[in-house]
């Protein structure tokens, strides 16, 4: 698993240099894939984009996720865009340290919080990967191939992919065979800039 900070400045496939998340904004998923492939020297077979509400729904559909937090995550400026009619509202988020069972909304708060993490952006990247692994574990334990229509319904309107969805059953079977300790976790750490003088 590779986490790329959204504020990382890179050459974009659409031209110029900007934050990597602008590739998607300027040219959609194809531009985002092309940017990552070129800038990181990796090949991407397929992409899946899941919206914020989609992640909440899929976590709720699998019965929530279990994580062990190493330290509390506090955020007084968490965007309340999923719970308020005002897109500019903020709310206070607090996830305590220790073992937690998180429903979709609380898992989203845990992975999306950007303020007051002891480990800054690295902490956020670690939390995101932690929840993705926990989601895979919950799906393996609680989702059968026959539940795919229920998962698809949960994601209606919240997923975009270039994959043929008929591939999903075989991919779920493959995911069940991969042990969590066989998954490498890669993070891009500071310094992110090298000045040439």
Task: List the keywords.
197 residues, alpha+beta, two-stranded parallel ribbon, two-stranded antiparallel sheet, 6 helices, 40% helix, globular
Structure description:
- The mean pLDDT is 85.
- It is built from 6 helices and 10 strands, in the order βββαβαββββαααβαβ.
- The protein has helices at 22-40, 52-61, 104-112, 120-142, 148-154, 168-177; strands at residues 2-3, 9-11, 17-19, 48-50, 65-69, 73-79, 90-95, 98-102, 159-161, 186-187.
- The protein is globular.
- The protein has 197 residues and is of the alpha+beta class.
- α2 (52-61) crosses α3 and α3 packs antiparallel against α4.
- β2 and β3 (17-19) form a beta hairpin.
- Strands 1-10 form a two-stranded parallel ribbon. The chain has a two-stranded antiparallel sheet with strand order 2-3. It has a two-stranded antiparallel sheet with strand order 4-9.
Tell me about the biggest sheet? 2 strands, parallel
Average pLDDT over all residues:
85
**Approximately how much helix is present in the residues?**
25-40%
- From the spread of the alpha carbons, the general shape counts as globular
Q: What is the string of SSEs from the N terminus onward?
A: EEEHEHEEEEHHHEHE
Please give the oligomerization state of what you see.
single chain
Provide a count of the helices.
6
The count of β-strands is 10
Uncertain runs:
none
Strand order of the largest sheet: 1-10
Overall structural class, as computed from helix and strand content, comes to alpha+beta
What is the CA–CA distance across the termini?
34 Å
Strand residue content: 15-25%
Rg computed from alpha carbons, rounded to a whole number of angstroms: 18 Å
